[in-house]
Design goal:
The structure is a homodimer. By secondary structure, the first copy, chain A, is α/β, with parallel strands linked by helices. Chain A has 2 domains: 2-30 and 289-398, Aspartate Aminotransferase, domain 1 (Alpha-Beta Complex); 43-287, Aspartate Aminotransferase, domain 2 (3-Layer(aba) Sandwich), CATH 3.40.640.10. Chain A is built from 13 helices and 15 strands. The first copy, chain A, has helices at 2-11, 42-57, 61-64, 70-78, 95-109, 124-132, 171-180, 200-203, 272-288, 290-308, 335-344, 368-384, 389-398; strands spanning 21-22, 28-29, 38-39, 89-92, 115-118, 136-139, 153-159, 184-188, 207-210, 224-228, 314-315, 327-331, 347-348, 350-352, 356-360. In chain A, the strands form 4 sheets. Chain A has a 7-stranded mixed β-sheet, sandwiched between helices. In chain A, strands 11-12-15-14 form a 4-stranded antiparallel β-sheet, with helices on one face. The longest helix of chain A has 19 residues, at 290-308. The relative contact order of chain A is 0.17. At the A-B interface, α2, α5, α6 and α9 of A face α2, α5, α6 and α9 of B.
């Protein structure tokens, strides 16, 4: 398969982008869906924002380096990656905090309705933020969601690509179903934004949030982003009404007046250094293009399945590459030991409790050769039954 | 005065710390109360967290570099600076977001009471976050606060050192007054933490929040911190119940169970890079010691007043150095032009609408010579009447 892999790499239109990232030589990184890799341009840009903008510019850089405009500028660059207009997206806070803002906003926009509908097994923070809000939480399995939409439901909150299985919702169909029932929709794009084609506008989505540190390569704890469809801009109210979301933050008025549009989602002072790192990552994704990334992602995961062949692993991701995110998840009762054994060999995927081995195929920096090698290693580990990391090391030491 | 200043610098026990910061030569920085200066150690530490921990360690660094423990570790280091125990403080989110958590928590702890009492002219975000919460906001002038504490008041929320005037509240007395009325107290330490002596425990304070990018020198948009007195740890509930505040975030349970103690204030993924920068700043403040910083701060501001002498400026900060924070604020109808004229000369203070020239005396990196030069420049500008920046430049060009 290595020859095949090299041919595929030769033909890969994104092949040159591998060198735009700094990755350790000894690692095959199948966890970009958890934390994206480091763009080569990021350290220099961060050194500049720290040394020059902070160190030399000091407080003046809020204006001279346009720190104050970062949330809008970075949000505006994320917008085309998710089918939104630039003024509909803002980069700020965490996914969790943005969920709270938009759950609360949806309840305000749908008076008399108090239910937020989601699915069991959604990413935990999505469910926890519903719990923390004043909404009543209702959970229904994905095949029962449409039927669970009644006139109590203010908001349908779903994760577009499931964090554990990668299964992708039909965004257009579910958005329509929610709207038909009089509910709003909030899409969590953490596992799809920057990796899969997302077209919020054509779906008529109301709200979305997404993660900056996965496919956008913004670094650990990068700011998240939030989308609000333009038609909701004027009526939108959210409770985290901090000074940065005020119409005139530097008027220092005692009374809150929301800024226009998505700016009112801002709360506290933006994390300038991480926001700058996120901008580098976003620029890179925009340059590669989501369509090309998505095509390569599907090719990588299909090639992995081909290289791996039939094993005792149970694929829990959809077998149709179009129906899953940029990942393959396998169920095995020894999934944890398996993931540790892979990591000891420099093949970094991850484990999701209780029994999932999750392998991500971030197309920006993976080669087909990486894929062939990772599949061969997994196959060998399965064939030799070397589950246990310590046992595996002992075997390695004596052979 | 320059000779006097040099003598004072000679005798300054913190003089050597000036070189632990990177400041541009041509600047006298009187705005550390808005954005602290860059510690010399920060760029290297950031380069390490970016290049080595993110770039090489990748997802593994959550454990191997203990990214996951950063909020507790940094919070624990801030604790002794504000008279708290390490397990009572956590670094996370922004001041605004932390205010929301603790306002909401206070309302839960005082059922039947719905009022949050503050003062008009408090820092805007403190007032705006009360507005955003489900509380009823009540404002009373600082001399009327004690009288406004009735059995409707769940929480007294005040900023210890006023952002505009620097006036400092008697934390012990107001905490006692609130407790006598059955209310809880939340202190915003943004303009005092790391600059003034704060002893939350001996005052019996319930909650506090504070800023990471002012006197703690954590960089633009550094994470904030939050304090919860140990006696409230078990009963504390807050609505931003994100996955990082779960008892077992990586169990990925559908139902939220709060983590023990202040950990339940966590919400989303911590901003690792900015958190690391904050740690460097906090370590430096801890090394200098708040008592020494506070002594120098008072000496700097008193020396400034002496150097400036009598002018048409109206001091709105308390004349007693013990009754104000690390700043002097002057009222003048041309305060904006005055601040711009100073900035054009490399003397960076700031303007606070509508008519305040605010000069900060961050003692970590200012010299007495800086103070003498800044005062002389201000005096000269006032004497020559060169208010207008453009006019001042024209004068400078022809003389």
């Amino acid at each position: 398969m290595l020859l095949r892999a090299r041919e595929l790499d030769e033909a890969d239109p994104l092949a040159d982008y591998r060198d735009r990232f700094l990755l350790p030589d000894e690692v095959i990184y199948l966890d970009g869906n958890s934390l994206g890799a480091l763009p080569r341009a990021t350290p220099k840009r961060i050194a500049e924002v720290v040394g020059t903008e902070w160190g030399h510019g000091l407080i003046r850089s809020w204006n001279s380096a346009d720190w104050i405009g970062l949330p809008q500028r970075v949000g505006g660059k994320i917008a085309p990656l998710i089918g939104a207009a630039p003024h509909e997206v803002i980069a700020c806070d965490s996914v969790s905090v943005n969920l709270f803002k938009l759950i609360s906003a949806a309840l305000e926009l749908r008076p008399g309705r108090n239910v937020v509908l989601s699915e069991p097994g959604n990413f935990p923070t999505d469910l926890y933020m519903i719990e923390g809000s004043r909404a009543e939480q209702r959970l229904a399995d994905r095949e029962s969601l449409a039927g669970a939409l009644d006139d109590c439901v203010a908001l349908l909150l779903l994760t577009h690509a499931h964090y554990k299985t990668g299964a992708v919702f039909d965004m257009a169909a579910l958005t329509k179903a929610a709207h038909d029932a009089g509910a709003l929709v909030l899409w969590d794009l953490s596992h799809s934004g920057g990796a899969l084609p997302v077209d919020l506008r054509s779906c008529g989505a109301d709200f979305a949030v997404g993660c900056g540190y996965k496919y956008l390569n913004g670094g650990p704890g990068a700011p998240a982003y939030a989308f609000v469809a333009e038609r909701h801009h004027d009526a939108l109210r959210q409770p985290l009404s901090g000074w940065m979301g005020h119409a005139q933050p530097f008027a220092f008025d005692d009374a809150y007046r929301p800024a226009p549009g998505v700016d009112r989602l801002l709360c506290g002072t933006p994390p300038v250094i991480q926001m700058t790192a996120l901008e580098v990552g976003v620029d890179l994704v925009a340059e590669m293009g989501v369509e090309r990334l998505w095509a390569k992602s599907r090719a990588l995961s299909e090639f992995f399945r081909e290289c791996l062949g039939k094993t005792e692993l149970e694929l829990v991701s959809p077998t149709d590459a179009d129906a899953r995110g940029s990942q393959l998840s396998y169920r095995h009762e020894e999934a944890y030991a398996l993931s540790q054994t892979l990591i000891a060999r420099g093949i970094i995927g991850d484990f999701r409790a209780p029994d999932i081995l999750r392998l991500g195929f971030a197309p920006a920096y993976l080669t087909f050769e990486d894929i062939a090698r990772a599949a061969a290693a997994l196959r060998e580990i399965l064939d030799t039954g070397a589950w246990d990391r310590d046992e595996f090391r002992q075997r390695a030491a004596v052979t």
